[in-house]
Amino acid sequence: KMLVSRPRMLTLRRTTGVLPQLLRVPSRCLLSTSEELLVYDNPLVSRYASAQMSFLFSPQRRHSLWRELWVALAQAEWELGVPGITASQVEELRSKTQDIDFQRVAQLEREFRHDVMAHIHAYGEVCPSAKGIIHLGATSCFVTDNAELILMRQGLEMIKSKLLTAISLLRHMALEYRSLPTLGFTHFQAAQLTTVGKRATLWLQDFLLDFEQVESLIHRLPLRGVKGTTGTQASFLELLEGDHDKVRALDRRVCELMGFQKSIPVSGQTYTRKLDYFVLSTLSGVAQSAQKMATDVRLLMSLKEIEEPFEKKQIGSSAMAYKRNPMRCERICALTRFAMTVAENAGHTHATQWFERTLDDSANRRLSIPQVFLAVDGILSTVCNVVDGMQVWPKVIDKHIQAELPFMATENILMTGVKAGGDRQELHEAVRELSMEAARVVKEEGKDNDLLQRIAADERFRGLVSLEGLTQVLDARNFVGRAPEQVLEFIQEEVDPLLTKYASSLLQEKVELHV
Fold it and tell me: Within a 13 Å sphere around the CA of 278, how many CA atoms are in the beta-carbon half?
């Protein structure tokens, strides 16, 4: 069975004759298996995101968190001596934080047209002795905003863990292939050689930078705290009989009870929506890094140098049975494009808030915040799956190197001839002519690159170089510069300290795909 989060009434027309002609389904009620097929199924939940991230933004988690916030508020108010609150009332509230009757809440919301008030009344019905102190002095944003900040911080912790896994897997790949030469590409044209491992460090570095952003944001993200209707704390000042120090203590205590070190210094009715922009922008950064990596892998798969995992019975194409399409990396690129686009939306939401608040952010944020988290969660699961099962084909890589390396090595060949006593200008012209002819044969006749054979046979190089000597000059390992050393230095100086710091929390198991 399934919980649908909004209290709308969905009118469903009969299509099969099995159901009544019109069904009116309260969207927060429990749906049967047959009825599930008649409502929209969010693929982020059913196909891509993990169960843990899906639960984080579920009605159960969000609204039990509301109740935990009401408990924290009541406890802090009791500790500070607000009249009429007893310890037994606080304990009664605490005992019912998880047991939520969503059908009753939906019924109350249809009556009140106010989701927070519906939950307050439903909570009060199961905590009769404490119902009079629920939400005391607070506005709706006390639960909605504080809960959102808590959920986002917990979501960032999940993203942080998956980033650690991706970083660890890419570290292994970078070290394994740190010395394997491969063609470098600029403008997707063959350029100087690099190594497969060095290229992996480019992806790894992006995720490392993302990790630093996520980690910093987790530590910096504040709670809204207790700020009142327009952020002035007037209602709490009244409850605490004009004692400003106690109002500040109340704000600090609620933060402490909810696991935060601080609240945002000032607010209107809501915390500044710029915080949402910071969070979703950071998630957008993760998506950008994933798309960069996945795009590179897609291009390399076209060259058949590298392949993402392909299972034994996997079908690449319904028509072309031989195909091994980059399905996982294409999924990454699809989800990243979605996440980056939705993240931009948060900036518009912040920019259009009026004075202390308007409500045009609410419906928007119900969609944007959870869905970006769900998308990035699914993205990182797929990234980990791709890297963990990546296949590298050294012989194909070397074949491509050999097709291009003679052209790239012409300066080395020229210097070899000069050192053997040849005239630099004469040999330069010979190399130019022979290179043009070899390139013409490759392009027009589809033949292999025979530049080395042409040079060895040319009379201007006779006695200066041999085919055997030229072959030694063209050892690909001589053209990768410091790439292998750069990989080691980067891993030792940047990656390993991070993984050592978080060794106890690093995910050990493979991250599995949902489909």
Answer: 19
